[in-house]
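Q: What structure does this chain adopt?
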Amino acid sequence: MSFYSGAKKLLSPVVKLLFRIKITGAENVPEEGGYLVCPNHTSMLDVVALAASFRRLLRYMAKKELFKFKPFGALIRKLGAFPVDRGGSDVRAIKTSIALVEKGELLNVFPQGGRRKKTDPTKTSVKGGVGMIAYHAKCGAIPVFIKSKNNHLHMFGRNEIIIGKPIPYDEFGFENGGMREYERASMKIFSASCALGGYAYPDEMPDDSALVGKKNKKRGKK
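A:
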């Protein structure tokens, strides 16, 4: 990870300047130990801003299509990424995620799954994958909120990365695992993330299928 460390040290000041990032709650990140880092997802550049805002290195999933161009794929691997098939259940990516956290690393996972730019985060659903990783890795989670104009991180605007106190594993209330428990844990984590930005996430999972379908239609997807 020496390449990643060097790149982070060199580029973080530039990223913070370009995105005018204010970091709140940096002291809440434990100096060691494996945790999930769980922010809202507003832009394809969220990971860049987050990596620059954390003292520790972040690992993260990236859609497998980004690795098809081998030079770029090799680069983002060196910058902490590993591939995930977002079109289905990617067992390999889940196992990699669990292993990284068990080794004591910070893994960035977006509870919403995909980007929800310019959207009220309390109107979006969350995925059970975050809870699944927490259950199997027996780890806590760090809620994070990316606060930006119109819920869309962008250059030269005012952006704030708000880092909350870690939620201990014991607070997720896991008993036997299963999708219901995973989703409940994901909702708990994302509710804490939203609260950092002044939002109240509902007790019942929102149905944003119409919103996602509308966005996919605009991209030419069926």
